From TrEMBL, chains A, B:
UniProt superkingdom: Bacteria
Species: Desulfobacter latus
Family from the record: Belongs to the CobH/CbiC family.
Pathway: Cofactor biosynthesis; adenosylcobalamin biosynthesis
An example Gene Ontology molecular-function term: precorrin-8X methylmutase activity
Protein name: Precorrin-8X methylmutase
Record keywords, A-Z: Cobalamin biosynthesis, Isomerase
Length: 205, 205
């Protein structure tokens, strides 16, 4: 089987096993791709998508926005070719030597400095957190202080310390978000959300 | 909290919630890191580690082996600094233009050509599958035909078409393996296994 055929068969299996659900068609394309990436049907219960978040993400991508990730793994997994088709790009500042240097000088985490450094790129862009609750929490603080203004936050940090809490805090804001309840998440599933949005954006072109 | 402190706290939470288990100390370090990466305790039941696979992996890393991955995401997540400390490195051929060209000419998948191209690097090395069942199935065929001879196979493809089947086939061989039963897996968890092995190798230095 070719990769396309494998994906189509996978989606058919997921549709069949998922059974009835209340996701709107575009939202289901996102959730289905998250399940495809993780083989974890629990995402059907865990995923939370704010009103208009899907439209905000599609519009941002169609306008050639910058997608900023908190991990190079998420950046690696994102279909940068699809973003580039709209004039967009993907950036991750975690491995930027200037970020590392500044974090060291200030005695704060690289995740924090990376979010601050990304603020100018964030306007009309999408911020993707696949790993660091610190990044998401600091982003929320910056949004509150009007220091950052992303079109969409994909908040999917994974782990046992502050991951669930940072996502709960995201869900209390007015910023458009795609996130999940609980500890699960990660770079592969975060990338899958952007890829699902980018593929929907391509269908509309 | 600093990243090290977050990790230590996360491991303490996992230890407490995991409860009693029968993993040997080194195997638990691997499984615990898989849980840390995924927040999925199901790995306690799913993971299968063949006799001597942990020792084979640690020895290979300590000898400066090449770690070959089937995805650039897994390569991105692997602590290449730790491998380099032993003279080792990490390679992924999926994005190699020669692999793409050959796959196109022969009408086969890139995953298949990437495995074949990696065979000469595989002696005493570790092959890591985090995504493509095709890669794992073709590797098993090559091992059977004595065309490949890795010291360890980390077989953790994820998905709905042949992922579980390819891992079941791996578990029927005599090659040292770290794998899991079922559909779950992926690049982040595959990288976490190599990082756990590399950290154990560092402790022994």
């Amino acid at each position: 089987m070719k990769p396309d055929e494998i994906e189509a068969k996978s989606f058919a299996i997921i549709d069949a096993e998922a059974g009835p659900h209340n996701f709107a068609p575009d939202a289901w394309k996102i959730v289905r791709r998250m399940i495809h990436t993780t083989a974890d049907f629990e995402y059907m219960q865990m995923v939370k998508i704010s009103t208009n978040a899907v439209a905000a993400g599609i519009n941002a991508i169609r306008k050639g926005c910058t997608v900023i990730t908190d991990t190079n793994m998420a950046k690696t997994g994102i279909r940068k070719d699809l973003l580039a088709g709209f004039g967009g790009r993907c950036e991750c500042l975690m491995a930027d030597p200037r970020v590392a240097e500044q974090a060291k000088q200030r005695g704060v985490t690289r995740a924090r400095v990376a979010v601050e450094t990304a603020a100018p790129m964030m306007k009309n862009g999408i911020y993707v957190v696949g790993n660091a609750p610190t990044a998401l929490l600091h982003l929320l603080e910056m949004i509150k202080n009007k220091a950052a203004d992303p079109a969409l936050v994909v908040g999917l940090p994974v782990g046992f310390v502050n991951a669930a809490e940072s996502k709960a805090a995201l869900m209390e804001t007015n910023v458009p978000y795609i996130s999940n309840v609980g500890r699960k998440g990660g770079s592969t599933v975060a990338a899958s959300v952007i890829n699902a949005l980018a593929l929907i954006a391509c269908e509309r072109t």
